[in-house]
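Note to self: keep these together.
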Amino acid sequence: MNKIIALAVLGVVFSSVSGVAQITVTPGTTLSVTGGTTMTMSHDVNISNGGRLVATGAVLMEGGNFSNNGSAVFNGTSVLAYNGTAPQQLNTVAPLNVSTLVLNNPSGLTPDNSITINNQLVLNNGILYADTSTPIHFANSASYPTERNQSRIVGRAILDPIAVDTNALNFLGCNIVAGTDMGTVSIVRNSGPEALVFIDGDVSIAQNWIIASSNNAAGPSRNVTFSWLSAVDNNRGMTAIFPYASDSTGNGYTALNTTARDVSSTDPRVYQLPNLNSYNRLFTFSDHNPVGIKTVTAVTAKVSAFPNPFGSILSLGITKDDDEPVQVRVMDMTGQTVLSNTYKAGRSTVIALTEVGNLAVGTYLVAVYNEHFGKSLKIVKAN
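Structure:
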């Protein structure tokens, strides 16, 4: 029979628990889960303000949501595994450090704070949604997950600074071969609709990488191979792809190669940049055909969406410095395009999107762009 356990005794220790509906760790209580223990919960774990969870070499199999308003410590080889079927949450009042996090839920997992992985992230099934404000950090000691179209990180993943020197480094689709000294390196991998870059009237794939090197002034030359899954192609033409990189301020994007490459035959897609010697910038890809090597600089424009949340109709208010048409693209939070169209647009325009009334309830991203600007913002379908 399902039951609610309210722990009220300091130092409660579990050696084996299975099928518990809900566990609440009350203020002043410590729940200790010892080594070799597997705790299986069919529903939620709630750590109240003033409560404490300490897992040491244990496995917590979570079928519901994990809510931490107190203190949660995952020591040694402890594992927090999400095995539900409905969308699950990881709610924590402060950034959380986890030894191993396992996702085995086709409906996905959404944290509401940043998480640091100290050992490994295992993506068996489902999407881990890591917003730009709630990123997944990988410590120096962590190994990185194998991603597939149905099992991946959508959002922001950060490799915390690591001493690379002359060694190789491979992090979430960014493979840097051994070579000249790069010093300390950090990488930010952005994926999903918020990773879009607007390039001269077009748009990038829904993935990018920011590579920072402490030895950038020396211009370390390395072969760097980027790879990405077809799920983030963003309807780009994979038979004619070009690499782009931002300038040092992130305001403009330069084509790094004027010859298109066909990367459509593999999934993940693979593109190598030989002898790359300029870092501390963002890298992405698009099928936009550059005329020579061209730098694209954004101009001032404003885009608003109302009402937001919306129901049967969404209006876009656009103010810009030209009379050119705009491309409007609506994407779900995995980066898949659900609506796309071109609209006439003067310098001050309101566009009514009636097609959004058919969308499922949820969060989306709308991108508005032309050859002079690009803007994106989150929208919510309420009913």
